[in-house]
Amino acid sequence: MPLTVTPHIIQTMPLFTGISAKERNHLVQEGCLHQFSRKQMVFSQGEPVKYFYIVVQGMVRLYRSTADGVEKTINIVKAGQTLCESEIFDTYVLNRMNAEAIEDTVLLELPSEKLKDMTKKYPVIALNLLAMISQQRYMAEVEAEHQAIMSASQIVACFLWRLSVHKRIRQGRFKLPYTKTLIASRLGMKLETFSRTLKTINGHGIRVEGAWVEIYNSELLAEYICHHCSVMSDCVAYKALQKEPVS
Amino acid sequence: MPLTVTPHIIQTMPLFTGISAKERNHLVQEGCLHQFSRKQMVFSQGEPVKYFYIVVQGMVRLYRSTADGVEKTINIVKAGQTLCESEIFDTYVLNRMNAEAIEDTVLLELPSEKLKDMTKKYPVIALNLLAMISQQRYMAEVEAEHQAIMSASQIVACFLWRLSVHKRIRQGRFKLPYTKTLIASRLGMKLETFSRTLKTINGHGIRVEGAWVEIYNSELLAEYICHHCSVMSDCVAYKALQKEPVS
DNA sequence: CGACACTTTGAAGACGATCAACGCCGGTGG
DNA sequence: CCACCGGCGTTGATCGTCTTCAAAGTGTCG
Question: Is the distance from CB of A99 to CB of B144 less than 8 angstroms?
């Protein structure tokens, strides 16, 4: 479906900051909207990378499978985020992961050459992309570090803490945004381990019951994570949060 | 020390492909050469990111430490590679890792603004940088995946296999490029575990004695790794290698 | 109500970390 | 020249943690 009006979520994307709304709309309107239903594949490992996608609505799970059938969820991409932004610039032209809609999802599909052209034409887009991909690289590095040096409980605590920072909740309750099976796969552990782990972090300022998470002592939680987590001290969002009054 | 003549290693860097030698030299000659001796720090966690570095000679270890003193080697950067290339584009302005020379090392230091300017001025540099950082992001993701789903033996086998691909050795012997302590730290495992692991991978086409690695059956090794390693099937270098005659 | 997806719980086993001791080697100084 | 030391690597025993396999519980939707 061709695009008639630029969705609001695209208007607020950091990727397009620095160019005029007119230019942005002109670019975006060369794309097509695609609807995907739950569990439908967007693309698969080994297929050529032809398009760049912006998630307009819904969620997409990125994962990779190995020859012996083990599957690892690499990331979960939400509205306002993008797919294939880094693959397009790599010399390897095939997809290295699978993308599957985990709920009813709308994607804006742009030919990948379009993104390259934009990058060449607008230096500010190049800088935005570099900032974005650099950030993703950093997060991937941190994740590898966590997998290497943190215990399952610490990984889970750190994940929940980041969720709370993202939702700007310092004390209080929120609901897990995905199923526990998906979270476990995202964190690189077995569902059973994740389930058991939720009990053990109870004494560290956070409590999980069913899909509900409650932070009852953010200092305790911060202390528990801080010793092991090098992101914590880096986290700009967290520092900003500390200056705000408790919600 | 100011730069008089552009070192050969810089002339062959993929980062500068697409611009003329004259332009490249003009850019590079605004930098300064710095000498670092073994164990000397190049920069530390928390310091502002002011420069972009090109390793002209030697090797630099990147690592991160957590509050409780655990240290993880993130990467080992060799001649022709760069430091801080992605940090510069990120909005977070402080270094998130430490850099330490692991042998006598010469670095070319360029003000980070220079790299940003180059990116804006030459779209081809922007594309080169995007390709480079995208590739690094991918490798970091793969590493996180490996930490999550592979055993220590598989991680070690995969590491040695990648070394052999890089050295273009399909069958035969080569020497480990770093101390075992450093490799263990790079792979996120304890030295003891690494040491023991080297014995267990013996039956999989590869043998390690002291600092010497011998690949005596590359098919066996490939088979051992392939089931678990999603990079293997992706690896362009590996595919190229398979087409070459056995050295 | 039954089917199915998702989650919890238990018991057993595998694997890597930890602690501790020792071997090896190169350099330094008496 | 030998003794000593420090950095590096190996080996052994033990322990804790995560995975595996198995079974049962919960919830939702047709």
Answer: no
Neighbour count for residue A223 (Cβ, 10 Å): 13
Total length of chain A: 247
Q: Which amino acid is at B89?
A: F
Instruction: Please name which of B138, B44, B123 lies closest in space to residue B83, comparing C-alpha atoms.
Output: B44
Instruction: Please give chain B's pLDDT, 247 residues, in tens.
Output: 666 777 889 999 999 999 999 999 988 888 999 999 999 999 999 899 999 999 999 999 999 988 777 889 999 999 999 999 999 998 878 999 999 999 999 999 999 999 999 999 999 999 999 999 999 999 999 999 999 999 999 999 999 999 998 888 888 999 999 999 999 999 999 999 999 999 999 889 999 999 999 999 988 898 888 766 666 555 555 555 555 544 4
Inter-chain CB pairs, A–B, below 8 Å: 158
**Encoded tokens for B128:** 């080169």
CA distance A147 to A141: 10
Sequence-separated (6 or more) residues with CB below 8 Å from residue B26: none
CA(B105)–C1'(C28) in Å?
A: 26
Residue A240 touches partner B, C-beta closer than 8 Å:
no
Given a contact cutoff of 8 angstroms between Cβ atoms, the answer to whether B226 and A67 are in contact is yes
User: Identity (one letter) of the amino acid at B194?
Assistant: F
Give CA–CA dist B46/B48, Å, rounded: 6
B243: its two tokens: 């087409």
Residues of A in Cβ contact (< 8 Å) with B230: 45, 64-66, 96
Q: How many whole angstroms separate alpha carbon B96 and alpha carbon A150?
A: 18
